[in-house]
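Subgroup meeting minutes
Present: P.N., E.W., G.H.
Scribe: E.W.

1. P.N. recapped why we're keeping a running log of single-chain structure predictions: easier to compare across weeks, and new members can see raw inputs and outputs side by side.
2. G.H. added today's entry (233 aa).
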Amino acid sequence: GTAALIWNEIIREKVTNFIMNQSKEQRILNFVLQNAVRGDPRSVVDTIDKYCSQKEWAMNVGNEKGLILDKTVEEVNPSVALELGSYCGYSAVRIARLLKAGARLLTVEFNPEFAAIARQMIEFAGVQDKVTLLEGPSQEIIPQLKKKYEVDTLDFVFLDHWKDRYKPDTILLQECNLLRKGSVLLADNVIFPGAPDFLTYVRKSPHFQCTNYPSHLEYMQVEDAVEKAVFLG
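Output recorded in log:
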């Protein structure tokens, strides 16, 4: 089943890492540098999708759920957006290419190796003027957003980091007064690997209005979903 598929991918990745002396994330970046068009975000996104669907699976949001992400960003048309979990920079590039002039995206990554790769990906895609990558744990960075990064409120938040951080970080965003009436949260992987405590929290809270978008796990036929939670104030 699903577990076996993913387990096989993990084993294959570890073997390849050992033989090639580089990580899967480094291979994704190299593939983009060699095959995508510099300064063309769409080309970067498509090239990552191509690599991950044909060569090695990776935890990007992927194209199917990416279309839900695109549609939400276009509807919200944010001036200030936050992404939790940059990974290789795929969704940061995907979001940044849709931002209006003068808008900005802050993307948070805890893993230094992923942060280094995301930085290069963002720069190669030519969206570095719109994206600020913040390296460190989300629970430390969120409380600094107002003072240190001059954020008043966030129009859009994309949650795609550790699933057990979805709920506490959502609560933290509320406590730090970073959400305004109409702020939109979009959470990836709420079914697989799943974020049940987050779903329970936002669905039961009188402060959020939720919509669920059934989908599939990136590059696989495994059921997953994206949850949209609109902050009602």
